Amino acid sequence: MNPTTRQPLEWKFSQVFGERSSDDEIQDADRISTVEFDKSGDYVAVGDRGGRIVIFETKDGKNTADQHYSRNQLEQLDYVSLNHPEYRYKTEFQSHEPEFDYLKSLEIEEKINKLKWCTSLSGSLFILSTNDKTIKLWKVKDRKVKKAREIDSPLQLLSSENTLLSERSFMNEQGIPSFANGNHVESGANSIFPSQEPRSKIANYEDTAYARCRRVYAPAHDFNINSLSNNSDGETFISADDLRINLWNLEVSNQSFNIIDMKPSNMEELTGNDESTEFSRLSLHFVVRGEVITSAEFHPIHCNLLAYSSSRGFIRLVDMRQSALCDYSARIFQDEECHGSRSFLTEIVASITDIKFPVDGRHILSRDYMNLKLWDMHMDSSPVATFKIHEHLRPKLCDLYNNDSIFDKFECCLSGDGLHFATGSYSNLLRIFFHGGGSDEGATIEASKDPNRLAASFLSLISSGLITEKHSLVKQ
C-alpha cells in the first residue's frame, strides 16, 4: 500500500455502551466482557457483565467498491477504502440471569464469558453464549413488523382547502350568497366534515430483528468455562474449563462427550495439601504444582484437530480420530529455550492465557504474560517469532507477584490475512505487530477517548519502575 495515500488508523475506545460523561457512575453490570466478530466481519456481538448481548451490523454499502471484494481480498489489495467500516445497532437481548447452585452453595453470575458465531442458515444468525456454567444457542432472525402511523384524512385536507378558498372569496367577492349562520357556501364543507373527524391510520412494514433461545445445554462443567470453539464441520463445538474439554453437537443439548480430562485422581496433587503454603492463596488457574487448561480452539480447516494450552506453557495438538479420550497429544509445542532454568516466578509468567488459529490453519498464535508467540504447525521446538510485550516488567516480577498482577490474563487476535496480530497490555495500551515486516517492535496505541496521544511516555514510566502498584495497572 502506498504510504502517501494510507489513511491513519481510527480507534474508538469503549468499556460500556452509550455516551457517558465523566460524572456518570458506571455500573459493573454495564461493563463489556467479550466481543466477537463473525467470519465475514459484517456482524459483531458484544456481551457485558450484566448477561446482555448486543449485536451490530455493518451499514449498507452496496454502492461502494468494497462490496465487490471479500474482506481478505481487500486486505491484500493496494487499495485504500474511502469509507471506514461503520456498524449500526441490530438487536439486543438478555442471554443469562444470575443463578444459585444450591448443591454447591455457589452463586453463578450472569457475566458473558465467551461468544461464538455459528454457521448461518436460511438468512438467520446463530450464536453461542456462555457464562461460567451454562451454554446457550441463540437464533437471530429478521422479520417485518407492521407499524401503523396516523395521517390527516383526505377529507380533512379537502375541508381545510375549502376553508382557505372561502376566506379568499369573502375578501374579493363579498356579494356571494351565504348561509344564515354567516358562513359562505365554500366553507360549508368545514361543517360537513368537522375537525373532530378521527385521524386516518396507514400501515407500513419495517425490518426488525429478534432473538430466540434455541438450546440450553445441560450443565457439564465443575469449573468455570474458559473457552468455546466451533468446529469447521458446522455441527459440533467444544467447551473447556480448567480440567476438562467436552465435545457437543449443536442439536443435542442434553449430552456431551468428555474428550480431554486432566483432573488428577487426588485433587491435593493439584492444589497442594499444606494450607500454609503460598499455593493456598492462588486460584486454580495459576497453580504451579499441577497443570490446568487455559484455552482451547478447533483447527479452522481440519475438523479432527484441536489445540489447547496449559498453565505450564505447553500447547497440545490432538487428533480426535486416534481415540475417544484424547489423552495423548499428536504434537506438543513448547519453547525449549524458556523451559531451561526456571524459577517459581518464571513458571507463573510462562502460563499461556490464549491461543488462536489464523484462517489458513498453518500457524498458532499464543499469549503468555510476557510475550506474544507465533508457532508453525510443523515445528514444535520453538516459535517462529516472539514479540515482547512486558519485557520491561521482568525486573519487577516480585512486586507484580505481591499485588497479584502477575496472574492477569491477556488475550490475542489476528487480522483476516493472518499477518497482523494484536494484544492488550496495561494502562489501556494496545500492541499491534506485523509478521514479516522485518521488525518485532510493533506499534503501541493507547485505547482511550483521545486515541492519538502518544503512549511511549507511559511506557517509559513503567520501565523506570515509577509505576508498580496494582491500582495503577489497568488491564485491557
Automatic annotation (TrEMBL):
SMART domains for this protein: WD40 (SM00320)
Record-level GO cellular component terms: protein phosphatase type 2A complex
Pfam families: WD40
Transmembrane as UniProt keyword: no
Keyword terms, alphabetized: Repeat, WD repeat
Keyword check for Repeat: yes
InterPro entries with a match to the protein in the record: PP2A_PR55, PP2A_PR55_CS, WD40/YVTN_repeat-like_dom_sf, WD40_repeat_dom_sf, WD40_rpt
GO molecular function: protein phosphatase regulator activity
Family: Belongs to the phosphatase 2A regulatory subunit B family.
Protein task: The B regulatory subunit may modulate substrate selectivity and catalytic activity, and may also direct the localization of the catalytic enzyme to a particular subcellular compartment.
The protein's name: Serine/threonine-protein phosphatase 2A 55 kDa regulatory subunit B
Lineage start: Eukaryota, Viridiplantae, Streptophyta, Embryophyta, Tracheophyta
